[in-house]
TrEMBL record:
Top-rank lineage group of the source organism: Bacteria
Single Gene Ontology MF annotation: isomerase activity
Keyword flag Isomerase: yes
Domain (Xylose isomerase-like TIM barrel): residue spans on this chain: 27-281
Cited Gene3D superfamilies: Divalent-metal-dependent TIM barrel enzymes
This protein's record includes keyword Membrane: no
Keywords: Isomerase
Protein name as annotated: Sugar phosphate isomerase/epimerase family protein
Length: 285
């Protein structure tokens, strides 16, 4: 595996509203646990807070990536409603600005469509093309700010436009921008891919970012979605980006119903981070 690989931790394990005046100590603990950086939700953050986070991260010598998700009621790249497509573009521009303010190099997430909307059908050509055009405009803006977009195929129970890396490859090729690629997520691959290592190999040139996320969203290595083979294929293809833990628990009320978090998945709320980074580091040797 490329020596530039970095291990990150998504703050959504603890909060969906990061605040630089509140979460400084959390960032310090993450640094002490052995992470190279953090991933922060950037689509609902004030620019002043993003700048404050950037200063704090530089002080701690932590790198940064950012994540965004789109509420289909107000922002949907695949909607036939131009106002919702424009809402998606404005949300993504804000997230890009915040990413740049935090010195982040990647903005990732399931950005193909607004979450929470299902048509009862599979993706239609019109909405696919609308999403491509919207993400192309977002990608052009991101390129001006030095940010890459890593689009995340997620499972069919959360989104219907793009569920597999193969469909994601088709999408980003149609967007046609060098700074727009894919996020490969072990949790969603565990649901949707017939052969996760093969899917990753075939999409390797377009994978900008990786989420290490267990099948139950708990501690990486405690289930079956993050096996040794996942790291082997990244070594084989020379992946040199972030391996970021995305885990969830019941300590963030805003995510409980959205992600169906009805039980605890670890003995301690911090276990997914503390134990997960150790699991990843063992596979980077």
């Amino acid at each position: 595996m490329n020596g530039a690989v970095k291990v990150g931790m998504n703050l959504l394990l603890w909060t969906d509203k990061p605040d630089p005046s509140v979460h400084g100590e959390l960032l310090r603990r993450i640094k002490e646990w052995g992470f190279d950086g953090v991933e922060l939700p950037a689509d609902n953050m004030a620019l002043a807070d993003a700048r404050a986070f950037g200063a704090l991260l530089r002080e701690l010598e932590l790198g940064c990536t950012a994540i965004a998700a789109l509420d289909a009621a107000v922002a949907d790249p695949a909607s036939p409603d131009p106002a919702l497509r424009q809402g998606a573009l404005e949300t993504l521009k804000l997230a890009v600005d915040n990413t740049a303010a935090m010195d982040g190099d990647v903005l990732c997430g399931p950005l193909f469509q607004g979450l929470g909307r299902f048509s009862g059908r599979g993706p239609q050509p019109g909405e696919w093309n609308d999403a491509v055009e919207t993400l192309r405009a977002a990608g052009e803006y991101a390129a001006e700010r030095g940010v890459r977009l890593a689009l995340e195929p997620i499972n069919r129970f959360e989104m219907y436009l793009v569920n597999t890396l193969a469909d994601g490859v088709r999408f980003v090729r149609q967007v046609g921008l060098p700074n727009v690629g894919l996020l490969a997520d072990t949790h969603h691959g565990n649901i949707e891919e017939l052969d996760v290592p093969r899917a990753w190999r075939e999409a390797a040139e377009h994978i900008f970012h990786v989420h290490i996320s267990e099948n139950n969203r708990g501690v990486p290595g405690s289930g079956h979605a993050v096996p040794k083979e996942a790291f082997d294929v990244l070594k084989d293809v020379g992946y040199g980006g972030w391996l970021t833990i995305e885990a969830f628990g019941r300590q963030v009320p805003g995510l409980i119903s959205r992600l169906h978090l009805w039980r605890d998945y670890a003995e301690h709320p911090d276990d997914a981070a503390r134990l997960g980074v150790q699991y990843i580091r063992r596979h980077l040797i």
